[in-house]
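Reopening this one. Same input as before:
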Amino acid sequence: MLLPSASKYAWPTTLFLFVLAATPIFGCVTPFVAASAAAAGTMERRAGALTVLACWAANQAMGFGFMGYPVDGYAIGWGAAIAGGAMLAWLAARIVAREGATLVQIAGGAALGFIAYEGSLYMVALAFGGLATFTPKIVLTIFANDALWLAVLMAAYAVLSSSAPQLFGRRLRLA
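Same output, byte for byte:
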């Protein structure tokens, strides 16, 4: 028998584990926009926000604890900027996609979230340095990375919600 709250945590935990697994592979290009859009379109407001923050915290813990991120003001500041960017991506995605959104709405939310995320990080780079990471090639690579991850996350959600709706919620609709 499932715990009464198991369904409340199954998808947020799964999403968290996907992002955690992506961290050592992608490091600084962890798919926060994809996670933010997936959370915005499949979870209620509080769970979505907390999941995005948990993904960011786990990414930072792995980065500083296991991947050798330098512990200095610049790196810590960028970590905080990424947290802000991830939350802005989530907020932007929620404009288009709320809990129960269709796949098309979630994709639209991800596009708006990407603009918010990259825009906020660009503003930080203008103020503190790091504009070299905002070349069209790099930004397009990050966009492609997030798009691919969003496809993987939504495919996982579609499979999980179809096979275990009592745990993962309603099935994903295309439009």
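So the earlier flakiness isn't reproducible anymore. For the record, The two ends are 34 Å apart (CA to CA).
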